[in-house]
Each structure stands twice: as structure tokens, then as C-alpha cells.
Design goal:
Oligomer: single chain
CATH superfamily of the largest domain: ABC transporter type 1, transmembrane domain
Radius of gyration: 35 Å
Shape: elongated
């Protein structure tokens, strides 16, 4: 219960922040909404006076005066309605953009461990359907304020015209308020469940599309389609829960004012016949009751809009209030530029959330300009070391040092600029080859891009593409082969000109006939640059100045490739096993 209350408080904090961010637009929408409703509320009074003082008294001049007043009120209502609509669209569009921008920017600041827990499907759901619910609330805010004050204004006018008849009309309003509160509580809970179900469906879609080759490769399309049907059915079920609630509340909301209309027709009609109430007042009463029905119905819908926005805000606030585990130091140490590339891991401890240790007191030193190959069995922590160097994670114990400074004491941007990673699984963006290469340095010139492509051994195949460097790549770069994607990724890292280059199995997707080209390119790239090579192919390992064997979370053997081949049965076994794998 406490956690639920905390989420609800966070949701309301976020709603208030969104409203404050569009305060000028909210005021504009509210004022124009009030003017619009003022015109609507005053119209029946104009009709009353036109009937009582013009029609019934056969006074043409008075009738024309009230008709002119009615026309002026209509023009006010039309103008204010147009302005209110413009503000509504403006508030909706700007709020939607701000929420999406906030989620995207904060998601980029969150560390890798958060993204390991919360998948992209969940984040996409919160940045799309959830932000849309918040935007709809901002769209309707001017209408809502106008309608609330319409109900109040109509009640006041009715009491002024005839308080006894007004009481008959207004008696149902407290009952409507109580029903609205009960409805609101139930609607909020059911809306949260619906949005969570939407999030699970979005996750399945995102994962299935991202892994479509795996899905097709193992023939998992049918079971996945069945799972999606199941999640879609759950969405339908949740939506029907809300529809059943609406099916009770909405008709009740419309029916209660109609009871007041029956009372007015009976009691008011008798008083008109008795001469105790004017015909104009009787007509005005009936018009105002009709005016009450629509605002009350709309306000019922606005309650659902608000509840959806609050439920969505709870999910959005969960992202925005998530604190990154990697914190920027208050007073960061300036890393010299260019960085020398001295890398040291001292007594590093690191484990996953399940408590299983990956690195256990690891000590490692790579001198500036030196290249080191890391070799070890699967799960020995090779890629973890790469992540620690780029500060994707922080160690549980010990220290990761860059040029003698603990990376915790440096700006994250400085660390990421000094250390570039090229992963086994390459990721390219839906853009041109040129823009993918200069992703880390958008200001790089074409000649620099081409030089990086040459060094990465990518220039030849890029020249054969339909539009060369201007060729647009498909999503994630799958229009290229695995080896081509990897060479573009290596070119991207080269262009970033890091002090430390980490190649995490970066040549694994390159076929044997092209591997010698990549090795030649890497030899040039690695020269004079601190390089950490995580590899399993002997020819790639041999590029490094020395090799470190990792096992049990520690470095157990070190030497050159040739020395270890001669002297270490463990090393020979590792290469043989990995070569077979």
C-alpha cells in the first residue's frame, strides 16, 4: 500500500510539473474557455428577456435589442471557442513533445544496468501511449475548467431566477459528485492495469521485430503469434473492464439531470399555467437543464482522461525518477587531452545482481600505446572488463584507473571520449554510411570519414554500394553483411580517435577470406594506441603485444601469444576449445 501511495504521489507531482511547464497555455485555454462558456450560459437569459419583454409584450424594438445581444454573445462564443481550440492543440502538442523529450533524455542518462532490467519495449510504451494520455489531459484542460464553471454558473443563475424550482434541478448534483468519486477510484485502478498490459504487449512486439531473424530461423512465429494473441486478449479484457464501468456511470450521469427536467416540466408547467412563473423563465430553466446534461457528461469523460493521465504519469515518473547508479563527481578531475591511455584495474570486484561474482580481485595494467589480448572461457568476465573501462558499470570493489585517475573522479563524457568500444554485436542506425561512421563526431569532414573507412578496411565495399558513402542503410544496418557492419563500426570507433580502443570480439563476424584485410587494418589502427583485444581467433590474438588469460575472475597467466602457446596447456586448450566452438 505504501509503495502504491508513493507511486500516486509521484504521478501527481509529474502532472503538476507538466501543467506548470505549459502555464501560459493553460491560462490562455482557461480564459478562452471561460469566455466561451460565458457566452453559452448567457444565451438562455437573452432568450428569456426576448420572450418576456419582446414577444409577449409585442415590443419589436426590445425584441431586436435582445436579438442583437444574442448575436453578440454568439460571436463571442465562436471567437473564444476558436481561441480555446488553438490553445488546446498547442498545449497537447507541446506537452507530448516535452514528455517524450524528457523520457528520451533521461533514458540516455541512465546506466546500462537500468536498461538491462527495463527493456526498450517498456520505454517505448511510456514514451508513446503514456505520453499521449498526458497530452490528452493538457488538450482538455481549458474545456474542463470551462465546464466546471458552467455548472456553477448555471446553478447560480437558476437560483436567481427561481430558487424553489432550482432546488428541484440541483438536488441530483451531490449524488453525481459522490458517484463520480467512486467511479474515479475504480477507474484509476483499472486504467493502471490496462496500461501495464499495453506495456507487456509493446515489449513483445519490440523484441520480436528486433529479433525477427532469430524468430524465423528457429520457426518460432506460430508460438509468438499465439503469445501476442494472448496479450491482446488481456488488453481487450482490461478495456472491457473499463467499458463496463463506463456503461454504468455515463448513463447514470445523463439520467440524473433528466429527473430534474421532469420536475421542472411538471412543477414549472403548473406555475406557468397559474401565472406564478413567466414563459421566458420557464424556457430558460429548460434550456439550462439541457446545458447541465452536456457539461456533466463531458466532466465524466474528463475524469477518465485525468485518471488515464495520472496512471500514465505514474509509469513515466518511474522512469524520470530512476536515479542512475553512475554518478557524475561534484568536482571532476580534468583528464588531460589528448589522454595518454594508461589503463589499470586494481583489485576489481564485480558481480551481477544475483550475487554471483564475475571479477574477484582482478589486477591488470596496460601501458600507453600497448595492446593486450584478453582470453578466457565464456563467462570469465572479458566483456565486463570492457564495460568497466568505458564506465558502463562501476566495480563493487577496487578501482578502474585511466591515466592514473579513478574513472569515478572523471567526467563521464571524458571517459567515453577517451575509451571507444567496438562490440561483437554491431549496431548501425537507419541513416547513411557516412553519418553512421561520424556518429561520435558529427563535425568530422568527409576526408576524415573516408580515412577512417580506409583504416577499417571498409572503403572498398563502400565504393561498391549504390550511392557510396551516401547509401542509406536499413534498420540496424541489416542491409549490409555482418562483416561489413563490423567494419563500419570499427571505422566509427577510429574516427572518434580514442586513447583506448576496446575490440570486444570485433572480428568474429568477418569471414576467413576477409580476416587478413581486417587484421592489416587493425595493425595500423592499434599502432601507438592502447588497445584491449577480446578475441578467440589465434590470428587476431597474435596482433596484441601480449596476452592475459582470465579465469575465476582473475588474471592467471600472462605472456606473448607465442610464449603461451609453447608453455601453457591451459592457453592451448582454450584456443582449441574456442576454435571448435
Amino acid at each position: 500500500m505504501g509503495e502504491h501511495d508513493a507511486q500516486r504521489r509521484a504521478a501527481w507531482r509529474f502532472v503538476r510539473a507538466v501543467v506548470r511547464s505549459q502555464s501560459a497555455g493553460v491560462v490562455g485555454a482557461a480564459v478562452s474557455g471561460l469566455l466561451w462558456q460565458a457566452g453559452a450560459v448567457s444565451a438562455p437569459l437573452m432568450v428569456k428577456n426576448a420572450v418576456d419583454h419582446g414577444v409577449l409584450k409585442r415590443d419589436h424594438h426590445t425584441l431586436l435589442v435582445w436579438l442583437g445581444a444574442l448575436l453578440a454573445v454568439g460571436l463571442l462564443e465562436m471567437t473564444a471557442g476558436a481561441v480555446r481550440h488553438l490553445y488546446a492543440v498547442r498545449n497537447r502538442a507541446r506537452s507530448d513533445a516535452r514528455v517524450r523529450d524528457a523520457i528520451f533524455a533521461h533514458a540516455l542518462r541512465l546506466d546500462a544496468s537500468y536498461h538491462d532490467r527495463v527493456g526498450p519495449g517498456e520505454l517505448m510504451s511510456r514514451a508513446s501511449s503514456d505520453s499521449e494520455h498526458v497530452a490528452r489531459m493538457m488538450d482538455s484542460i481549458g474545456h474542463t475548467i470551462g465546464y466546471v464553471l458552467t455548472v456553477v454558473a448555471v446553478a447560480v443563475v437558476l437560483l436567481v431566477i427561481d430558487w424553489r424550482l432550482a432546488i428541484v434541478v440541483l438536488i441530483p448534483l451531490p449524488l453525481i459528485s459522490l458517484a463520480g468519486l467512486a467511479y474515479s477510484r475504480r477507474y484509476h485502478a483499472r486504467t493502471e492495469r490496462l496500461q501495464e498490459t499495453w506495456g507487456r504487449a509493446a515489449t513483445l512486439v519490440e523484441e520480436s521485430i528486433a529479433g525477427i531473424r532469430v524468430v524465423k530461423g528457429i520457426g518460432a512465429g506460430r508460438p509468438l503469434a499465439g503469445e501476442f494473441r494472448s496479450r491482446s486478449s488481456a488488453i481487450v479484457g482490461r478495456a472491457l473492464d473499463i467499458a463496463r464501468l463506463d456503461a454504468v456511470f455515463m448513463p447514470t450521469l445523463e439520467f440524473l439531470p433528466l429527473l430534474g427536467l421532469l420536475g421542472v416540466l411538471w412543477l414549472g408547467g403548473r406555475r406557468v399555467i397559474a401565472g406564478d412563473l413567466t414563459v421566458g423563465s420557464f424556457l430558460a430553466f429548460n434550456a439550462y437543464i439541457a446545458y447541465l446534461v452536456w457539461p456533466l457528461r463531458v466532466l465524466g469523460q474528463r475524469v477518465t482522461t485525468l485518471q488515464k493521465a495520472v496512471g500514465a504519469s505514474a509509469r513515466i515518473a518511474e522512469v524520470l525518477e530512476a536515479e542512475p547508479k553512475l554518478r557524475e563527481p561534484r568536482h571532476p578531475i580534468e583528464l588531460e587531452r589528448p589522454a595518454r591511455g594508461d589503463v589499470r584495474l586494481a583489485g576489481v570486484q564485480f558481480g551481477h545482481e544475483d550475487g554471483r561474482p564475475v571479477l574477484d580481485g582482478l589486477d591488470l595494467h596496460v601501458a600507453p600505446g600497448e595492446s593486450l589480448a584478453l582470453v578466457g572461457p565464456t563467462g570469465s568476465g572479458k566483456s565486463t572488463i570492457a564495460g568497466l573501462l568505458a564506465r558502463l558499470y562501476d566495480p563493487d570493489g577496487g578501482a578502474v584507473l585511466l591515466d592514473g585517475h579513478n574513472v569515478r573522479d572523471l567526467r563521464l563524457s571524458d571517459v567515453r571520449r577517451a575509451v571507444a568500444l567496438v562490440f561483437e554485436e554491431t549496431f548501425l542506425f537507419t541513416d547513411t554510411v557516412k553519418e553512421n561512421i561520424r556518429f561520435a563526431r558529427p563535425d568530422a569532414g568527409d576526408d576524415e570519414v573516408e580515412r577512417a573507412a580506409v583504416l577499417a578496411g571498409a572503403a572498398e565495399f563502400i565504393a561498391d554500394l549504390p550511392d557510396g558513402y551516401e547509401t542509406a542503410l536499413g534498420e540496424r544496418g541489416f542491409s549490409l553483411s555482418g562483416g561489413q557492419r563490423q567494419r563500419v563500426a570499427i571505422a566509427r570507433a577510429i574516427l572518434a580517435d580514442p586513447a583506448v580502443l576496446v575490440l570486444d570480439d570485433a572480428t568474429s563476424a568477418v569471414d576467413a577470406t576477409k580476416e587478413h584485410e581486417i587484421r592489416a587494418a587493425l595493425t595500423t589502427v592499434m599502432e601507438g594506441r592502447t588497445t584491449l583485444v577480446i578475441a578467440h581467433r589465434p590470428a587476431t590474438i597474435a596482433l596484441a603485444d601480449r596476452v592475459a588469460v582470465l579465469d575465476g575472475g582473475r588474471i592467471v597467466e600472462e605472456g606473448t601469444h607465442g610464449e603461451l602457446l609453447r608453455a601453457s596447456p591451459r592457453y592451448r586448450a582454450l584456443l582449441a576449445l574456442e576454435a571448435v566452438a
